[in-house]
Amino acid sequence: MEDAQILALDQQFSLQPPPPDELDEQVMLTILNGIDTPKEKRPLQCVTFKQPLPEYFRLKKICEFWHLQYSDVIRDVLRRLIPVLESPNEEIRECLERLRDADIEKKRLRHESRKKRQRMGLEVEV
After folding, report:
1. What are the tens digits of pLDDT across the range 61-79?
2. Co-location of 102 and 122 in the same domain
3. pTM over 0.85
4. What is the per-residue pLDDT across 100-120, written as a single tens digit (0 to 9) for each?
């Protein structure tokens, strides 16, 4: 009985995501309107990606509730995002450039750190 009470308290105090904003709802409506649109048959390539387990369970559960195919939802979201990434507007381009520059700098620092550790290892051996 104690485990059930603890679980109920955990669920009661778990962090809830913020409610969707108007833009999120517009994106979902666009995706849902495109699900039943006939599409050209193309060869499929399996794509896997890491997703936090709680998010995965939430998405699976809500897709089951609405009788949607989990993979269709993800595929249609990705299908909508690819053109945005190919031809970003100014605001998205600035954000993408900022993220790319931060990633390049992080890789540069990681590479320098690795080189420094290797030099330190060589000095210890000598």
Report:
1. 999 999 998 888 888 888 8
2. yes
3. no
4. 999 999 999 999 999 988 888
> In 3D, which of 64, 83, 76 has the Cα closest to residue 29?
76
For the chain, the distance separating the N- and C-terminal CA atoms, rounded to the nearest angstrom, is 64
Token pair of 41, please?
A: 């048959």
Range of the domain at 102: 89-126
Provide the phi-psi class of 52: left if phi over 0, else alpha when psi is between -120 and 50, else beta: beta
Amino acid at 22: E
Contacts of 37 (CB under 8 A, 6+ apart): none
Do residues 112 and 98 touch, judged by C-beta distance below 8 A? Answer: no
Decide if 12 is inside a domain: no
CB 93 within 8 A of CB 100: no
